[in-house]
Specification:
- The complex is a heterodimer of chains A (about 240) and B (about 250).
- With about 240 residues, chain A is an all-alpha fold.
- Chain A has a domain of about 160 residues.
- Helices cover about 55% and strands about 0% of the residues of chain A.
- Chain A is built from 7 helices and 1 strand.
- In chain A, helix 6 packs across helix 7.
- With about 250 residues, chain B is mostly helical.
- Chain B is built from 11 helices and 1 strand; from the N terminus they run H-H-H-E-H-H-H-H-H-H-H-H.
- The longest helix of chain B has about 30 residues.
- The radius of gyration of chain B is 23 Å and the shape is globular.
- The chains are: A mainly alpha (about 240), B mainly alpha (about 250).
- Chains A and B meet through strand 1, helix 1, helix 2, helix 3 and helix 4 of A and helix 3, strand 1, helix 5, helix 6 and helix 7 of B.
- Strand 1 of chain A pairs antiparallel with strand 1 of chain B.
């Protein structure tokens, strides 16, 4: 490391540059810009505060904080134990598993989408879905969690959904088994090289997580267009 | 009085261990002799610190955490976490404390900004493949920090004790009651003889409904437990950046 030039002028061929001032100055500017934006934001817009908490006067709709409104929106399509508990846990576990499931060594430290089409597509689908549900829950849901366009008046009463039907359990179980079984099996044929690289355990895990994510979207479609309430319904739990 | 007269004093020299001539040695010492800057290596990869590579998202997440800590501690001076006073204290803060409204606004908006920045930081790390070996575990730490960020924001949401806060947490805590096996409304709760007095929701709220116990619990979580957990994981997160090969860049 005797190559340091005494006058400190940056030489284009140098790959490593001094943290002071090159990185520290960027951080300093970023902090100042962030502080300016925060200050303007805080001067011009007040944090909301409604009337004092009253357990006897229910807010309608009662909305969760915006980052959880997506999960609240999923409550329309799934029971609370799925929408409010299982899905968040699966999202956290699924995210944590990503580095252990992605077998592709390419694209480290660069915006390289060409060599990582599949993972990027799956991740962005989930990311987009998360924010889509938040936007719907936050801006398109009114009293009783009914759907209202932004220009519609919440005072206009909306009828509850028409009668929903549940798929018979035998048929519903078949659908679920076929969805996850065939989904994994057929994708295995299409992504043969990937399957061989990953091994059965990793491939099936990735496949099941991906199918569950797409499954949320499919259940929404089933509910909206086919008025399906449950795929399986038992006295203990329903899906 | 010249600046050199100050910089030559024993006191100054005891604080700042190096001179200011622009030499490679002093640039290195500026990092290594400063407890905060020495999170950084002395030299960094030219491409890794380009703004368009990181968009400063991770660093700004930390900055929002610092803003939250400072504004949060100041808010604690004016706030009592009991139902009798909580809402009143927020009102007094807004109307009688100098810059009180500004303080509360900044705490609220920086919290939103932090949630957004952490989510975007995760997207950036994913898109640049920076979770791949040898950085797998640091991604997991990052996921934990994301969860803590959301919990910090969620617990803070109850503290103003207004209708928004009360009903948002009521909706949120209903989810805890739906936990399979451990929530009174969850599937298979009979298995462990779970009632509304011993389930997950009760653990979260200290009661079967949102009330004074929940307010105190959320306050302690928000001001002590979660910030400490966050600081701990932030240490691990930053330390692992260095140990796992520095800011990510093409291998």
């Amino acid at each position: 490391m005797k190559t340091e030039n005494q006058n400190n002028t940056l030489q284009p061929e140098e790959k490593e540059i001094f943290t002071v001032p090159n990185l520290v100055s960027i951080e300093f500017i970023a902090m100042i810009v962030a502080m300016i934006i925060l200050t303007i934001w805080s001067v011009s817009l007040d944090a909301p505060l409604k009337a004092i908490a009253d357990p006897n006067w229910t807010e309608n709709p009662a909305k969760a904080p915006w980052y959880f409104v997506g999960l609240q929106e999923v409550l329309v399509y799934f029971d609370p134990w799925i929408a409010g508990v299982s899905i968040p846990i699966l999202i956290i576990v699924g995210l944590a598993l990503i580095p252990y499931l992605d077998p592709n060594p390419k694209g480290v430290g660069e915006y390289n989408f060409r060599d990582r089409k599949l993972v990027i597509t799956v991740f962005l689908t989930g990311y987009f879905l998360w924010f889509l549900l938040i936007v719907i829950g936050q801006y398109f849901r009114g009293p009783n969690w009914q759907f209202y366009w932004i220009w519609e008046d919440w005072a206009v009463h909306k009828e509850a959904d028409q009668a929903l039907v549940s798929i018979p359990n035998l048929f519903g179980s078949l659908i679920l088994v076929a969805y996850f079984g065939l989904g994994t099996f057929i994708s295995k044929i299409k992504f043969k090289a990937l399957y061989e690289k990953m091994g059965t355990l990793k491939y099936v895990t990735s496949s099941v997580f991906t199918l569950m994510m797409i499954g949320i979207l499919l259940k929404i479609v089933l509910r909206i267009f086919f008025h399906v309430k449950y795929i399986i319904s038992t006295p203990y739990f329903s899906i | 009085m010249k600046l050199t007269q100050i910089t030559e004093t024993p006191v100054w020299k005891s604080i700042f261990r190096h001179k200011f001539e622009d030499t490679p040695r002093n640039r290195s010492l500026a990092v290594t002799s400063n407890v905060f800057l020495h999170l950084h290596p002395i030299k960094v990869d030219r491409d890794a610190i380009k703004f368009r590579f990181t968009f400063c998202l991770g660093g700004l997440s930390l900055f929002m955490f610092i803003v939250e800590t400072i504004t949060g501690v100041l808010l604690m001076l004016y706030y009592r976490p009991v139902p009798e006073y909580a809402y009143l204290d927020i009102k007094l803060l807004e109307h009688t404390v100098l810059f009180g409204m500004f303080l509360r606004n900044m705490h609220r908006w920086a919290a939103h900004a932090m949630v957004i920045l952490v989510m975007l930081h995760m997207l950036r790390v994913f898109l640049t493949g920076s979770y791949k070996p040898p950085r797998e575990f640091n991604w997991v730490v990052g996921v934990m920090l994301l969860v803590i960020t959301l919990l910090l924001s969620f617990t803070g949401y109850l503290l103003p004790w207004d209708q928004i806060a009360f009903w948002a947490i009521t909706v949120g805590s209903k989810m805890a009651a739906a936990t399979p096996f451990l929530g009174v409304d969850g599937p298979f709760h009979e298995f462990f003889h779970i009632t509304d007095m011993n389930d997950m929701k009760y653990l979260l709220l200290g009661d079967s409904d949102v009330g004074g116990n929940a307010l105190l619990r959320f306050y302690v979580l928000h001001c002590v437990i979660l910030p400490l957990a966050s600081v701990l994981l932030i240490f691990v997160h930053f330390w692992r950046i260095r140990k796992d090969g520095g800011i990510s860049r093409p291998l």
